[in-house]
Design a protein that fits this description.
- This protein has 85 residues and is mostly helical.
- The protein contains six helices and no strands.
- The protein has one domain.
- The chain is elongated and about 45 Å long.
- This is Transposase.
Length: 85
């Protein structure tokens, strides 16, 4: 995902072009992450670890916010500006 964002910046894409690329390239990555976390939560052996339990729960609880990057082509740019990266 980060490589995609770097590529989008290097290509100097418009916000609309970035949104389209994110939906096509980043959306499937996010869905795979979500699927893996859901599967991990069903594995008692993995969930026996408190840090893993916390990480999985946090990811699921924050999922709607994590997907916000797919909504437009400027979310990443706002974060870069805000945090001075």
């Amino acid at each position: 995902m980060f490589r995609n964002e770097d590529l989008f910046r290097m290509m100097k894409l418009s916000s609309e072009e970035i949104k389209e690329k994110r939906l096509k390239l980043t959306g499937p990555i996010l869905e795979r992450i979500h699927h893996k976390v859901v599967m991990m939560m069903q594995d008692a052996k993995i969930m026996a670890s408190e840090p893993m339990r916390k990480a999985a729960s946090y990811t699921i609880n924050q999922w709607k916010f994590l997907k916000n990057i797919l909504k437009d082509g400027v979310a990443e740019n706002r974060m870069i500006t805000r945090f001075g990266c």
